[in-house]
Amino acid sequence: MTKGRVDSALSTAPVVTCMKTLMMVFNFIFWVTGIVILAIGIWTKVDLYKYLELSSIYQPEAPYVLIGVGAVIVLIGSLGCCCTIKGHSLLLYMFCGFLFVVFVVELSAGIALLVYRGKLEKGFKDGLSEAIKRYDVKGEGEITRALDELQAKLVCCGIQNYTDWFNSPYSIKEQQPFSVPESCCKVKATECHHIGLKGPNATTNDIHTQGCHKLVVDFINGNMGPIGGVALGISFFQVLGAILAFCLAKSISRAKYEQVA
């Protein structure tokens, strides 16, 4: 009987060692994914938000969700390494629970991003229309600065094309008929002809004529699609980690029981 217990304990030990090795590999990859999500969240807040805030469906808290999830993953990944090394079954069960919570959050975020893509086209069209209506010729206000930066960075002008500015308050109220803002200029504002762009002698050689709507939607879709796909992929990766943590905790508890017995 004693020999059977010894054999059982000896057979369990290699399994625990193997499970610990797999868990350490998982924790490292898990920790790296946290860094990636954290970086994406910071990038979204620092750079991508300049485009997102012009959309009528923009959610300002979205970057903070990514930053929070990334930070939590880094923390949990670090704690997971400690739990694995120390081999406490209770901590591993708790780690398994944390992974399940992260799985739900990431799965929800990934689905939300992919659904959000479908609403971008109308959201940006409405948002750009509103931004043009609220444009301040003095360049003051967040909306005005965001629209100027968008047009300058994406080398575009207006929604569908530059003529969208002709019926805007900027062109009408400022008594600058058939004009576009200086942010539409290809060259320096002092050398740019951006007023009186309609007529027999009018020229558009100094301005960008392509609209911003399609460029913005393509840019956001090109970035949010991969981000949403990565979020979904990572979320299912957590399921594997949760299974490994549960199996390791169970193996450690079994090994301890066999040693006591």
Uncertain segments are 1-11
Structure summary, number of beta strands:
0
Radius of gyration, Cα only, in angstroms? 28 Å
- Strand proportion, as a percent range, falls in under 5%
Helices and strands, in order, run as HHHHHH
The count of helical stretches stands at 6
**What is the arithmetic mean of pLDDT?**
76
> Which outline best applies?
rod-shaped
Distance between the termini: 11 Å
The percent of residues in helical segments reads over 70%
Could you describe the largest sheet, including whether it forms a barrel? Answer: none
Q: What structural category characterises the helix and strand content?
A: mainly alpha
Written overview of the protein:
By secondary structure, this protein is an all-alpha fold. It has 6 helices and no strands. Helix 1 runs antiparallel to helix 6 (213-260). The longest helix is centred in the N-terminal third of the chain and has 51 residues, at 2-52. The termini are close together. 31% of the residues are buried. The model is unreliable at 1-11 (pLDDT under 50).
Write the layout of secondary structure elements.
Blueprint: H1 2-52, H2 62-86, H3 89-133, H4 142-153, H5 169-172, H6 213-260
List keywords for this structure.
mainly alpha, 6 helices, 261 residues
Brief rundown of the structure:
By secondary structure, the chain is mainly α. It has helices at residues 2-52, 62-86, 89-133, 142-153, 169-172, 213-260.
